[in-house]
Design goal:
With about 300 residues, the chain is of the alpha/beta class. It folds into 2 domains: about 1-80, Winged helix-like DNA-binding domain superfamily/Winged helix DNA-binding domain (Arc Repressor Mutant, subunit A, Orthogonal Bundle); about 80-295, D-Maltodextrin-Binding Protein, domain 2 (3-Layer(aba) Sandwich). The chain contains 11 helices and 11 strands. The strands form 3 sheets. Strands 3, 4, 5, 6, 9, 10 and 11 form a 7-stranded mixed sheet that branches. Helix 5 crosses helix 11.
Length: about 300
């Protein structure tokens, strides 16, 4: 099943924490039970046959049934159990763990599956109903969803601490001197930046593109350029004076971090319990974990 999911014996071995030869041997042993090929190698690439895909679907059903037995066993013991599946936009990794922590400690039998990726992939998972919840800072316009708002999201123009803003008589000339660093297409932060630039007719003569929020942050710290970044992801760098906020007309951009799910979705007991927990505890979590952001 893992080989089918990854389309690679090597990647399957990595995810299973096994050696590649061990996985290859097990795959061969499994194949020996069938007269029809499960996979084939063309060039150096592994392809799953139609028969192999059908066997993988059966294998997934078996695993799901085993998990159901485990969950039912825990339920009869009076413990909330099951799997909670959440997809989070890249910058949301600075937010979501704090809203999960107490809930997971209360219910130690729950399995958490959290994927951190860009907005396009998050919404794709949501649309396919592969997850229970998504965390976004920009609501989708092409999906019918319900939402629970959690926390305000502010984005500022940020540069490293070596840049002297006092030498810039007009802050808008910063883009003539320093490149603006963008996230990749499909990113929610990228969308907000482009909307701001278009709305305010800001000219960007120099720019570059990087594929993760962390890469953008490290590039700004290193002095490669400046960027418009969510405050939530640069708390430590501001405190350590590795980064500074550059005043700029029209900033900060303000949005809201929201948990969203498909409208009309019937939540499993775990997902329903998590939603109730968030509704009850979010004010306390914000006060305890995010009160620092009020100073900006």
């Amino acid at each position: 099943l893992k080989v089918v999911q990854t389309k690679s014996v090597t990647k399957a071995a990595e995810e299973l924490h096994l050696t590649q030869p061990a996985v290859s041997i097990q795959l061969k042993n499994f194949q020996d039970q069938f007269d029809i090929p499960l996979s084939e190698v063309v060039g150096r690439r592994l392809y799953i046959t139609d028969f192999g895909q059908e066997i993988a679907d059966v294998a997934q059903n078996i695993i799901n049934q085993v998990e159901t037995i485990n969950y039912k066993t825990m339920a009869f013991k009076g413990q909330l159990s099951g799997r909670l599946k959440v997809s989070v936009v890249s910058t949301g990794k600075y937010v979501m763990p704090y809203f999960l922590s107490h809930f997971m400690k209360l219910h130690s039998s729950i399995e958490l599956q959290m994927d951190v990726t860009n907005k396009s992939k998050v919404l794709s998972s949501l649309e396919k109903n592969e997850i229970d919840f998504a965390l976004v800072s920009v609501l989708p316009t092409n999906l019918n969803v319900e939402q629970l708002d959690l926390l305000q999201n502010k984005l500022y123009l940020v540069a490293n601490s070596n840049l002297d803003p006092q030498k810039l008589q007009n802050s808008e000339v910063i883009f003539d001197k320093v490149p603006l660093i963008f996230r990749e297409k499909g990113s929610g932060t990228r969308q907000l930046m482009e909307n701001f630039i278009n709305k305010n007719a800001v000219t960007i003569p120099k720019k570059m593109e990087l594929t993760s929020n962390e890469a953008v942050k490290q590039a700004v710290i290193a002095g490669l350029g400046c960027s418009i970044m969510p405050l939530i992801g640069i708390k430590n760098e501001l405190a350590n004076k590795e980064l500074q906020i550059i005043p700029f007309k029209g900033l900060p951009i303000t949005t809201t971090w929201s948990i969203i799910w498909l409208k009309g979705k019937k939540h499993a007991p775990v997902a329903a319990a998590f939603l109730a927990h968030l509704d009850q505890e979010k004010a306390t979590i914000i006060k305890e974990k995010f009160n620092w952001s009020e100073g900006y």
